[in-house]
Amino acid sequence: MIALEQIAQQFPTHLHFQKQAMLREYLQCVILEILFESPFARKFSFLSGTCLRLVHGNTRFSEDLDFDNFSLTDSDFDAVAETVKKGLEKQGLRVEINNVHKGAYRCNIRFPGLLFEQGLSGHREEKILIQLDTERQGFQFQPQTFVLNRFGLFTRLLVTPPDLLLAQKLYTIVNRPRAKGRDYFDVVFLFSKNARPDYGYLEAKMSAGTPELLRAAIFEQLKKVDLEELAADVRPFLFFPEDDRRVRYFSAFWEQVVL
Predict the structure, then answer these.
(1) How many whole angstroms separate alpha carbon 89 and alpha carbon 87?
(2) What is the pLDDT tens value at each position of the chain, 259 positions in all?
(3) Residue 184 to residue 233: CA distance in whole angstroms
(4) Which of 76, 109, 174, 239 measures 20 to 30 Å from 223, CA to CA?
(5) 229, 225, 218: which is closest to 257 by C-alpha?
């Protein structure tokens, strides 16, 4: 593992107080390198918030690692988790893992003592947690490739295309039981990168296969949420707190955005 001071060098100076978030991002990259250099690499496609951060440069920190998967079995996932554990231990890290198989797969990866050793916690027992989650999306697509080159780590990722990432985020806005500001922030970010929704996915998942149906579905959801509260929800993760306006102004944005 490289020193925290070296990790901080890859972030703007104004973020250096976010030491735990920077450390988490480094650990995410280590895990990605281990996973995508393993025999199971082609069974995964990286997606969601951390993909937007590491692959597309989104300006918010993200906590967990999420993947689509292709024909992954229980035994495959357990082998992946063990591979990740051994790879992290080779980096000199103490690691605890436990796996959950309940339709989707989850590996809880805990690093005991790391926050204390790095001077980020006064409690020796406090653990940093990264969840590795994968659920088959049931929608056919061709993953793209992206070469991750950060913190001295280097690997080729399989990633979900931006148009599909956008469609998945829009689906999440409509279907998440408890609204999250990050979903709205990420949608605005993806549109700023010229992504356009994958209507095949939206038709299959929520019968919103046209711009008109999609616009109406999101407006219906906007009636149920408080955008000011959602902006406050995502603000602690933003590189620039004032960017919470991407959430606060979302209704006006959604009215005018070209779908």
Answers:
(1) 5
(2) 899 999 999 999 999 999 999 999 999 999 999 999 999 999 999 999 999 999 999 999 999 999 999 999 999 999 999 999 999 999 999 999 999 998 799 999 999 999 999 999 988 889 999 999 999 999 999 999 999 999 999 999 999 999 999 999 999 999 999 999 999 999 999 999 999 999 999 999 999 999 999 999 999 999 999 999 999 999 999 999 999 999 999 999 999 999 9
(3) 11
(4) 239
(5) 218
